[in-house]
Amino acid sequence: MCGIVGYVGEKQALQVVVDGLRRMEYRGYDSAGVAVVCDDELETRKKAGKLANLETLLGSDPLPQSTIGIGHTRWATHGGPTDANAHPHVSEDGKVAVIHNGIIENFAELRSELTANGVTLSSETDTEVVAHLLAAVLPTVGMDLAEAMRVVCRRLSGAFTLVAVHSDIPDVVVGARRNSPLVVGRGDGENFLASDVAAFVAHTRQATELGQDQVVELRRDSITVTDFDGRPAEVNDYEVTWDASAAEKGGYETFMAKEIYEQPKAVSDTLLGRVDANGRLHLDEMRLTENDLRSIDKVVVIACGTAYHAGLVAKYALEHWTRVPCEVELASEFRYRDPVVGHRTLVVAISQSGETMDTLMALRYAREQGAKVLAICNTQGSTIPRESDAVLYTHAGPEVAVASTKAFLTQIVATYLVALYVAQVRGNKFGDEIQAVVRDLNDMPQKIDLVLDTTEEVKALAQELKDVKSVLFIGRHVGYPVALEGALKLKELAYMHAEGFAAGELKHGPIALLEDGVPVICIVPPPSGRSILHEKIVSNIQEVRARGARTIVIAEEGDDVAAQYADHLVRIPAAPTLLQPLVATVPLQVFAEAMATAKGLDVDQPRNLAKSVTVE
Ligand code: F6R
Question: Domains of the chain (ranges plus CATH)?
Fold first, then answer.
């Protein structure tokens, strides 16, 4: 959701803060704002809209030079995306500036209390109450900003990351964290605070994870972390494994294009080092014992959005290879329906960001019920792996575009590694069978490369179809979640009606949507794999064609049967059925990106979205 950055050091704070915001704009882009402290004065600038609007304002109304500052990009929750609701929010005396990510659930009560005490609030946000509360508390705690923050945090409920500065305390930035991300960057004579390491990785790769309910006081040469009661807190230091160039566009038009093209590497990095010379899988980093895995009687995958689609793909492989029943559930639904989970359930929480609130709340619930939770995550130091019993990292590198691409493929690979490992431990598969699948997985990066070499036709097709009202996607077996993912990409990027269906389900209702010329993208399983699946989908393609639909058929090289029913044919390299999503998804990502470009839309920052969804 919102992106937060704080800096204290020797450099020009404004430059550091604005650069950090640019790297975090994917988190929210409804408005942006900054505050700096200079000569005991607090100065803020804020503007509705993207960061570029704030930069224009800073050009016409510059801020004084300063070595301490904070900044914010907003994804609106309380109050519309206006200048007044943009952060930072400032106390009535103009001395405290606060930025916030999350939702303060008891803000209405706090607002009434402040109003009753004669405070005039100037925005509709939940955040502003914190600025006024800090101003009220500070004189009672000897003008100690960290202590004032602890006192205020003890009064707040909900999820929040807060960062504050005060004009009379010009060498301190204070942050607080409950249920929303906040990381410290440790520099030499300078320190940073941010929602994501991307904001400061150009300056330092030394980071510190903050735990739940902690307050951090940042000075140029010191970092002090306590809990909300002021007791010294334990923190975890780590080194970021990628550098700033990984989060640059690197010559591509958009981050999304770059990330689509990074998929072969992302997949091979996720496979790297997990198989020994004898072909045995080693997932030691996972921290689950073989006994834990032998005792499970059910796997439940929880995730949201694209990560949920990766979970749906995983179910087919996991049940097939391990014979352990697997359910896949949207994290936002799981927790609120009294699900049957216990100490023999392995819950797999999939999340690129590691901060998605729905997934975090679902995993906490699962652990309360006694289940073991394994996180599959792309972001080191994030909350979901920290709160799980075990973690397997995907090595996709930073994903900046709001629409997820490379994370999806690596999530599928990681779940497959887990499934094969469970099969190995429980003896469901012989070693040579596991080795054969691992060999096939190792061939996939090269096959994805082949798909990426032939995207021109898909791009031309997107240009041709840019004015259609609706696109449908059909698939069977693992092709069904691929259809769902293709539709999600198109919705979020091209703002058009797009829906994925299990091909066999079409005749039970959705076929009524078909009329002349409606594009239907059909994902065809390999003819050589489970040929019955292939036969069935070929019938489904004929059914839609008979009703006037325009078929766009994604079929493997040499599949001449499916090709006969294609108005447009997109070829993908041959792959085993269970691995086909790793190649079949790629043209759909390219199609959605090209469609957004053809419509003149913002590919990396689609409207209303944010990359890391830290509210429920
Ligand atoms: C879609 C997309 C979202 C995320 C979802 C979960 O392109 O990016 O649907 O997949 O918000 O996010 P993570 O994986 O960070 O938990």
Answer: 3-247 (3.60.20.10), 255-450 (3.40.50.10490), 456-598 (3.40.50.10490)
